[in-house]
UniProtKB/TrEMBL annotation:
<keyword id="KW-0456">Lyase</keyword>
<dbReference type="InterPro" id="IPR033130">
    <property type="entry name" value="RNase_T2_His_AS_2"/>
</dbReference>
<feature type="active site">
    <location>
        <position position="178"/>
    </location>
</feature>
<dbReference type="InterPro" id="IPR033697">
    <property type="entry name" value="Ribonuclease_T2_eukaryotic"/>
</dbReference>
<dbReference type="GO" id="GO:0016787">
    <property type="term" value="F:hydrolase activity"/>
</dbReference>
<dbReference type="InterPro" id="IPR018188">
    <property type="entry name" value="RNase_T2_His_AS_1"/>
</dbReference>
<keyword id="KW-1015">Disulfide bond</keyword>
<dbReference type="GO" id="GO:0006401">
    <property type="term" value="P:RNA catabolic process"/>
</dbReference>
<keyword id="KW-0256">Endoplasmic reticulum</keyword>
<keyword id="KW-0378">Hydrolase</keyword>
<feature type="active site">
    <location>
        <position position="125"/>
    </location>
</feature>
<dbReference type="GO" id="GO:0005576">
    <property type="term" value="C:extracellular region"/>
</dbReference>
<keyword id="KW-0540">Nuclease</keyword>
<protein>
    <submittedName>
        <fullName>Ribonuclease T2</fullName>
    </submittedName>
</protein>
<dbReference type="GO" id="GO:0005788">
    <property type="term" value="C:endoplasmic reticulum lumen"/>
</dbReference>
<keyword id="KW-0255">Endonuclease</keyword>
<keyword id="KW-0458">Lysosome</keyword>
Amino acid sequence: MAQPPEEEDEPHRRDRTGLKVLQISLCPAGSTTAQGGCLGIGQTPGQSWSSRYTMNKMKPSISHCLTLGYFVMFFYCGCTSAKCLERDCHPHTWDKLILVHHWPVTVCKMNMNDCDDPPQFWTIHGLWPDKGEDCNRTWHFNVNEIEDLLPDMKQYWPDILHSSLNSTHFWKHEWQKHGTCAAAIEPLNSQKKYFGKALDLYHKVDLNSYLLKVGIKPGHTYYQMSAIKEALTSFYGVSPKIQCIPPEEDEDVQTIGQIEFCFTKELELRNCTHLKTNSFLMQNNLKFRHEELSICNDTLTSYPLEV
C-alpha cells in the first residue's frame, strides 16, 4: 500500500523536479496562510473559496501573492540596476579605434619631472575609441588578468613620464578611461583582450621598422612633414594623424610627438579624420605645462634623438 507523502514544513514545498522551494507569503499583515490562499483575520481553512471571496474580496490567492512579490522584487531590482548604470556606467557608441604611438623623447621634452632615459623607439600611448570615456567605473583594472602580457607591456607600453612609479598606474588609467568603452565589441571585451589586441595592432603596424626602412631616423636632421605624411600614406594605404609640438616664437621647426592609426570596429586600418570641431579628439591631445601637441603643419619637423 502506497505510503502517504511526507509532510513538510509549511514554508517549504517541492516543485516538479523534487527540489524544495521556499514559499514566501506576501499576505497582508494580520492574515494567515493556508493551502490555496491567504486567510483573512478570523477566517478558517475549511471555508469554501466562494465564502472566503465573499468575506474578503481583496485577499488574493498565494499564487497571486507570489506573482505580485516577484513583480515587486523585479521592479525594485530593475530600478536599482538602472540607477547603478546611470551613476557608474556611461556606454557610448563609437565608430573607430585609434592606436596612439608617442615618441618618448618628445614626451620627456614636454615634461622633465620624472623622465629618465626614454626609449628610442615609438611606444604605445593607448588604444582609444573615438567617442566616450570612463564607460564603466565599476569595472576595475586587475593586473592579474594580463599577467602573461606584462613582458611586452613593460617594453612597448611603458609609463614614460613616471618610470620610477608602479608601471601599472598608467595601464589602469588607460583601461578605465578608454578600455571600458572599447569593450563594447567582442574582440576587446575583457582586459586581456583589450591590452593584447593593442599590442597585436602595434606589432602589425610596426611603425618603427617602416620609418627606419625609408630613412626617417631620429637625430639632428630636419624633415618636411609633408614628406613624412606621404611616406606613411603610401605604405599603409591610409592617412594617419600626426601631432607635433608647435615651434616656439623664435623658431621655425615643429617637433614630432605622436602618430595615430585608426581602425574600424572590424580592426581594419582606415583613414583618420581630425576635424577641428571634434572636441573629443582635441581633448585627447597631450598637454604638459604650457605645451601641447596639435596637428602638424607641412613644414620643417624635428625628430629628436635626445631630450
